[in-house]
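Lecture notes, continued. The same structure-token format from the folding unit now serves as the input rather than the output. Read the line below as a description of shape only.
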């Protein structure tokens, strides 16, 4: 999906994949990052996991429905989400945004800046569709 959006002229801010195994494929094919044991990924973040950053193999085999029960998250106050793959449930990400409002505010600001910097507005699109 992100390839199609990119081809249509959209820029990826961050991607999300609920399934860690599908996330592994996304990371390898689209972010050029291989997820390996004992190597902390630079472009892939887990929203929530039962396993630490160094337990990549266990994270990749984790049931996505069990991950929200975990105590580990790769998202801290200073985490940059741009151009990252976030693995896990987006509802858990929204909870993190509530707990750490600076992160959520930064994401919203960046998205609005990107929207405002486009060459056309929603009004133009609406006029063309009328």
């Amino acid at each position: 999906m992100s390839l199609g959006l990119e081809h249509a002229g959209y820029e990826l801010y961050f991607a999300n994949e609920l399934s860690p195994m599908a996330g592994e494929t996304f990371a390898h094919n689209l972010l050029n990052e291989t997820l390996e044991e004992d190597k902390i990924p630079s472009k892939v973040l887990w929203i929530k996991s039962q396993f630490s950053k160094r337990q990549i193999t266990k994270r990749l085999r984790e049931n996505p429905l069990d991950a929200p029960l975990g105590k580990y998250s790769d998202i801290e106050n200073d985490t940059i989400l741009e151009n990252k793959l976030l693995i896990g449930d987006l509802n858990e990400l929204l909870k993190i945004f509530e707990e750490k409002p600076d992160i959520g505010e930064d994401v919203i600001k960046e998205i609005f800046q990107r929207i405002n910097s486009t060459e056309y507005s929603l009004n133009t699109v609406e006029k063309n569709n009328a």
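Point for the exam: The beta strands are 14-17, 44-46, 84-87.
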